[in-house]
Amino acid sequence: MSIQHPNDPAGPGSPLVWRAAFASPEGRWLALGVALATMGLVGLGAAWHWWPEQALTLAAMSGLNLIIGRAAGMAYGYASGLDHLPVIACNVLVETVQVLVIYPLFVLGCRQWLLPPWLAAPLARLRASAEGSHAAVRRFGMAGLFVFVFMPFWMTGPVVGSIIGYLLGLRNRTTLVVVLSGTYLAIAVYALFLDEVDAWASAYGQYAAFVVLVALAALAMLVRRWRRPPR
């Protein structure tokens, strides 16, 4: 992935470059994602003042979603005693921000806008992951993309799905609508399923369901790394 605009002599992080980027449609989506992330952090900071225990749980759930995935984050939230509303709202916000920040940055990078190397490298890895599933999704178009985002398999999250949408040639708005609608439906289904699983597994310990899901995610990561072809 190239990181330099061919007609732009400015160096990385130039205000002129980022001003032009934020003036583009992708830049406006990025600005919305940054605004939502800022609102979430401010809200979490305010909640910490009055409800420190619940705020810590929300922060941990958000981190688990980002690092391991939706299932682990939501399972931790239910195991910690949160109700449907905070679990669903927190995960909706986290995954929406992920898409609205990473997808526009990826598109801007593909269109030769200037991106610093520390952003270009992870975006290139995301593209490689998306290209691995691109052929299977392409056969079914938008329906395939929706199912890809919705199904609870490893590396089928909304960020990779949005990049597949770009590789399919879908318009930005179409990609975001398909990916986010599939994500929100998946979160609702996960909420119902994990709430039942947590109630059943609580007989074996408060965090039994969470531990099992983290173990499965770790196993999936190991299998994926083992199956990765040597460079």
The domain count comes to 1
- Total beta strands: 0
N-to-C CA distance: 18 Å
Structural class: mainly alpha
- Give the oligomer, counting copies of the same chain as homo and different chains as hetero: single chain
Could you tell me the strand content as a percent range? under 5%
- Round the Cα radius of gyration to an integer and report it: 19 Å
Task: State the helix count.
Answer: 10
Summed over residues and divided by their number, the pLDDT gives a mean of 79
**What is the N-to-C order of secondary-structure elements (H for helix, E for strand)?**
HHHHHHHHHH
Helical content band? over 70%
Topology:
Blueprint: H1 15-23, H2 25-50, H3 52-67, H4 70-79, H5 84-110, H6 117-138, H7 141-150, H8 158-167, H9 172-201, H10 208-227
Helix pairs in contact: 1-2, 2-3, 2-5, 3-4, 3-5, 4-5, 4-9, 4-10, 5-6, 5-8, 5-9, 6-8, 7-8, 7-9, 8-9
